[in-house]
Every structure is written in structure tokens, then in C-alpha cells.
Amino acid sequence: MPLSSRRPRWPHEYSSPAKPEPPDSRPALPSGRSDSVPAGERYKLTSLQGLAALSLDAMASVSYGPEAIVLVLATAGGHGLGFTLPVTLAIAALLTVLVASYRQVIAAFPDGGGAYAVAKRYLGRRSSLVAAASLVLDYVLNVAVSVTAGVAALTSAFPALYDQRLWLCLGVLAMVTAVNLRGVVDSARIFLLPTVLFVGSILALIAIGLFRDAPVSTASADGHVPALGDNATTVGALLLLKAFASGCSALTGVEAVANAVPSFRAPAARRAQRTEVLLGALLGSMLIGLSVLISRFHLQPVEGVTVLAQLADASLGHSAAFYVVQFATVVLLALAANTSFGGLPVLMGLLARDNYLPHVFGLKADRQVHRHGVLALAVASAALLVFSGGDTNALVPLFAIGVFIGFTLSQAGLVRHWCGEKGNGWRARATLNGTGALLTGTAAIVVTATKFADGAWLIALALPLLVLAFTRVHAAYARIGERLELGRIPRPPHRDRSLVVVPVSGLSRLTSEALTVARSLGDEVVAVTVAYDDHEARHATEALRRDWELWRPGTPLIEIPSATRSLGRPLTAWVDDLAHQRPGTRITVLIPEVEPARPWQRLLHNQRGAVVAHALRRDTAAVICRLRFRLGK
What's this model's pTM, rounded to 2 decimal places? Predict the structure, then answer.
């Protein structure tokens, strides 16, 4: 191995610089696959697979987005419900702005990162960390909310399972985690069918409902108490703004595609843009279609029955089709957590590359999956599920705040991008992004203010703490880099005189092998043993001394006296004194250990080698080598 390759480097130094993607001149097959897929691309996404892997969160939001609008407007009575469609159209307009914006983000930042990458380049380091922290919090909350919402829908159908909802939540989380550890492509293939079933059933519900003049059935809402406000007829701007902010929860997940561009097959940026547009078109169509049906059927929210269930009942009747919609909703809500597993590990990889997270998050497994990021997300989500007891209502107030902050910073960054570039149509693009930043920023403020007492204060507290953690990690890496002289030409290597120390406790073949290896490594070799001050230990030390003199290995045996039965402390003190006595000598401690034939046989050994290695590593600057002597079966 060349010496230059031995220089300590951060993980991103091993990656080749990003290259412009070549145009895809090969004709695409109907499935989105090319005639021949390179081995490295096999574990990456096509456009349709990306829709299944990265859009479940956004797709599932149509089950609670329109309901969030209706519940707010219902406080103003039946008159307030008449504003459902205008508010939804405003959200759809914002969705259009976001999709157009994130298409530009994908093109400008093909390495992924979304709001973090944009803010880093155009708004500065601190803003980028705020964007990253907000996305991290939103992704973790998305997993918890999606899983609890799916389990809540399940326990609504089977009330006997209600007391087991926490264990059901953890079971669903374990399943989604296991699928994602196999790779993002495998998760996309598994979740493609539920996505198609859900989208198909919602579009069918809308299409059939548009031909209805009145609800076919109201069986699902019969006997339930309406949630309308009493004698309320005034709809003020504040109420409309609150309804708009609540309905914007349907926009969570729109940014996931831009965060995970490297997960797509080449040309990755083009495929990601197609996925973003397809996601926006489907999500916007479903939101507007459901709102039209809410107005057409004069639907009123009732306690204990979702708005989507009432719409399915009104359009399809209380038949098998009604239960298909409910089943598809349950499955997709439970699996919507997959969006976070597709986006957050990539974002954590970028943060690790920039030294804001431990570098282990930048590593990829064989299937191109950021395994450590997946596991970290699973652990954080599990902790949140346990904290909330599997209750969706305890988590919803915390949801969607982070994503609005990310939206706002991303849009503001693109405004600076267009103003600096000044290309064709830059004024229109800057106006579009500026309007988007204003709208999403307003939504973030309104959602935080209206939900602050319900738990949003936790996000307001966690966000700066997470930013502080990023900066601490970055400062630690800066100190490490300074000590390692990263980025500088190091001093030329030279040869020090070497002394190899071999701890021994008795004579055996292991002792002979250790001294043989030590002589191969160093100019001078000494064997050391710790001599304890008690009757039994003195006899053992005297026996070792006599055997050593009879054996005559040509290596001196040094006895280190110790008043206690400690092993690591007297040895480290002796090595430390030796280093001070011989300042120009490189000291290596070679620790001989037995490697048993079977894993369970490790329990039979005393682990002295591990104890010594830990003590030396902690308290001395010696080089530590652990010699494993393998036993045959």
C-alpha cells in the first residue's frame, strides 16, 4: 500500500468529486429499467420506485390533511365549512410552488440534502444547521406519527387490540426498519403495491363521488356527535390562516425526494425531478378532489369517524369498496414512515461528510444503504413511541413545524441563488420562491403559536439543542483534524528504535508465539509479569521465574511488584515510567490472547487481554497489538 494512502482522512475524502451526469440516451423500458443496469445502480431507485419509497408520507397525508382543515373551520359552524375548498386551493398553490422549487433544488444539488444543502450554500452555516435540525426532528416525528396513526386505524377496527397499541407500534417500526436495512430498492418494491392500492382507491373514490348528487350512505357517521361550533357564522382571517396552517400538514414529505437524490439511478437528478412532479400532481389532485367532495356532500366532522371514512361511505356506499379504502389507508399510514428511512439517512450522511455528525453515518453497506442512519432513526423513533405510549394525539402537536422551517430556508436560499445568477427569467423565479418562503414562514409561525401549549414548545427547545450538538461535533472534528494535520503535507517518516513489551503470566505455546512475533516487530523485546504481594501469588511468581531460567528464551523477564490484585494499573504505570526513561524509543505492547474455536467458548476465558488493552489505551501512548492465537476445533 502506498504511504500516501495511510494518511488519516475523513470519510468524504474517499469519494470522488461529483461529475455531471451524462444524458440517458438508452430507451427506457416501461418499468423504468434500462436494458442493462450496472451493478452499482442495481440497488438504486427508478422514478416509480422512488415514488413508492419516498412519497408514502406525503400520500398518506391526504387522510388527515383535509380533516385538519375541516376541524378548524368547523368551529365557525356550517358557514365556516364552506371555505374548505378555497383553503385547499391555497394549499395546492403552495404545493405547486414547493414542487417547482424542489425541482430546482434537485438540479442544483444532485448530491441531495434539500433545504440543508441550499441553506449551506446561500444562507450560511448557522442557517444550514437550523434547516438540518428541523428536518431531522420532522423525519423522526414522521415515523412516530405515521406508525401510531396506522395502529390507531387498526385498533379502531379491532378495539380488542387497543391496550396493545404500543407493542403494535414497535412491531410495525421493527418491520419497516428491517426492510430498509435490506436497501432502499427492496423497500420500494415491497411498498409499491400498497401505494398503488391507496392512490387507486382514493382516485376511484373521487371519480365516483363527482358523479353523485348526494351521499350514497351515511352509515359510518350515524349515531356520532357532530363536531360543529354552536351559533358561529363569522369566518375571520385568523381562522382561515389557522386552517391553512393546519392543512399544510398534508405537505410534509414533499422535500424527501430532494433529500435523497443519490438514491436514484443515473441520471439521478432527472429521475428525482420526475418523481417530484408525479408526487405533486397526485397529491394536489387528491387534496382538491377530496375537498370538492366535502363541499358537494356538505360533510360535517363527527367524533370517532375520520373525514376520509365519511367520504368513502358517501361515494362508494357502505360496501366492500368502503373497507378497501379503509384497509389501504391503514396500511399506507403504517408504512408512511418509510419516507423518513429514505431521506434522513442520506441527510445524516451529508452532515457526517461535513463533520457535523459522527463519520460512521457516512458509511454505506453493500446494498447502498446508510445502515447506521437507519438504525439511529429507528432507535430515536422507538424512544418517542415509548414516551408517547403509542398515542397519536400526543405527537401530532409536534408534527410539521420542522418541515415548514426547512421549506422556508430552502425557498429563501433559492431567492438569493436567482438574484446572484440573474439568468433568463430570474425575477419570476425569485418572486415565486420569495412568495413560497413568505407563505411557509407564516405557516411555521402560526402552527408554532397555535400549538405551543400543546407540545410545540418541545420542538422549540429541541431545535437549538440539536444545532448546538452539531456545532460541538464539528468543533471536535476540527480539533482532531488540527492534531492530525489534515490538509497539510506531513513530516517525512523516520525509524525510531523500538521496544516490544510482552505481558506474560505463565509458560505455554502462546508465550512462545508471542515472543517470536515480538522479535519480528522490534529491536528489543522484554517480557513482564505482575508480581502480587500474597502467599499464593508469590509461589506462582517464583515458579514462573524458575521455569523461565530453565527455558532460556533469550528474553529478559521483568517482575512488576503490586500490592493489590490489580492487573492493568501496575502495568500501565510501568510502561509510562519506561516511556519517560527512554524518550526516543517507540514502545509497543504485544498482548497474547487465545481465540477459541467456537463463539460460546469465549465465556471460558478470563478476558485478561481486553482488560490490559483497555488500561494501556486509556493511560499510555504505547502502541497496542493484540495477538490472537487461534485454537483448532
Answer: 0.68
